[in-house]
Design goal:
By secondary structure, this protein is α+β, with helices and mostly antiparallel strands. It has helices at residues 23-30, 32-37, 86-107, 135-150, 162-171, 175-184, 247-262, 265-271, 290-309, 323-329, 331-335, 357-366, and strands at residues 4-8, 14-18, 40-46, 55-56, 61-66, 76-81, 112-113, 123-128, 156-161, 190-196, 199-202, 216-226, 235-244, 275-277, 286-288, 320-322, 343-344, 349-352. The protein binds zinc ion.
């Protein structure tokens, strides 16, 4: 039996490497420049998923983003991701969130940790701390992040028996991490931990190899959020930031947010007398004033014209229909907690429609 594995690269070539080689080893064997530019890797192989993040594709392949340092133990297709790959940006930003948490723990060691994912435009991390963070704190945290980038700390992964992991977080008073471990792992499972500086995370990764890879980031703002979205729970402070592969991209993004602020619909709506929101009526409910009403009409007319031009038809169905219909459609059985309350009318119980499809199906049925 050979101790080598076959690695198929995107150009179709096949590399034979010793079992246990990493994506970084593969990158190095191709070119030092690629190894330097590598952010993470993507493997696709036949058979059972290798990890929690793995997703089977239609062809029966399992695809997974992995750390560059994860040992490869079977034949696989491999793609080394660099800053040219959109998927690498998500990994980079998730790692930026870890960098933020590491900096917060350096400066405010009493802070308890929630979670910190990448988002569409950056990342955030949820923290619990009795004293609110101030804008000055954000500046300090950003400086500390910069220092940790200079130190080029590794994102080191280890697997711990669940009990041991839980105990570690319990010792730190990290009630949120304990909750996540209990929620998302089984008692017999080993849990995946990433360590960056003083920051230890229960996290499945993947991550960039080290903090030195993070080239351009900015902390943007702080918002409050209740733990598990319940106002009876402690209030968390969510720090938002963003990061990009280059300073140029970051600056372009920051410029774009400034420009968007000038065009904030809430500001423009008032300035141009288009609409208002009435406290007495409720937040987020829009009252269209005459000028706004005209804009709305123009947009609706345009939209309907487009529908007809593109071969769609128009139908209208009632907003409120008998409960029986929702029983037939299955909404009542699976979805009733998320629907508005039953309205008792003269002859029966009615409910506001949660979706249009059952109404449309009745139109089809009528012509069968
Ligand atoms: Zn994480």
């Amino acid at each position: 039996m050979s101790d080598n594995i076959h690695i198929k690269l995107p150009d179709g070539s096949d590399k034979e490497m010793p079992k246990g080689s990493t994506a970084l080893d593969v990158a190095k064997s191709i070119s030092p420049r690629l190894a330097e530019a590598a952010i993470a890797a993507k493997v696709s192989s036949n058979g059972a998923p290798a990890g929690e993040g793995a997703r089977p594709t239609q062809a029966g392949l399992t695809q997974e983003l992995i750390d560059l340092t994860r040992p490869l133990d079977k034949d696989t297709e491999l793609r080394i991701l660099t800053d040219k790959d959109p998927e690498a940006l998500g990994v980079y930003r998730h790692s930026s969130a870890h960098l933020l948490a590491a900096a917060v723990l350096e400066l405010f060691p009493e802070t308890k940790l929630g979670h910190g994912p990448a988002t569409e435009s950056g990342f955030f991390y949820d923290f619990y701390r009795e004293t609110p963070f101030t804008p000055e704190d954000l500046e300090k945290i950003e400086k500390k992040m910069q220092e940790l980038v200079q130190q080029n700390l590794p994102y080191a992964r280890e697997f711990l028996p669940r009990d041991e992991g839980l105990q570690r977080f319990k010792n730190e008073g990290d009630f949120m991490k304990c909750h996540f471990i209990e929620q998302f792992t089984r008692p017999d499972e080993k849990i995946s931990i990433y360590k960056t500086g003083k920051f230890l995370d229960f996290c499945r990764g993947p991550h960039i190899p080290s903090t030195g890879k993070i080239k351009a980031f900015k902390l943007l703002n702080i918002a409050g959020a209740y733990w598990l979205g319940d106002e009876k729970n402690p209030q968390l402070q969510r720090i938002y930031g963003t990061s990009f592969f280059s300073k140029k991209d970051l600056d372009a993004y920051l410029h774009q947010i400034e420009e968007a602020k000038k065009r904030d619909h809430r500001v423009l709506g008032k300035q141009l007398d288009l609409f208002s929101i009435q406290e007495l009526a409720g937040p987020g409910l829009i009252f269209w004033h005459p000028k706004g009403g005209i804009i709305r009409k123009e947009m609706e007319d345009w939209m309907r014209d487009q529908y007809l031009k593109r071969g769609y038809s128009l139908v209208y169905t009632p907003h409120v229909m008998r409960k029986q219909l929702w029983q037939t459609s299955g909404h009542e059985g699976y979805y009733s907690q998320n629907m508005f309350d039953v309205m008792e009318l003269d002859d029966a119980e009615y409910r506001l429609k949660p979706m249009n499809c059952p109404g449309h199906i009745l139109i089809y049925k009528d012509s069968l």
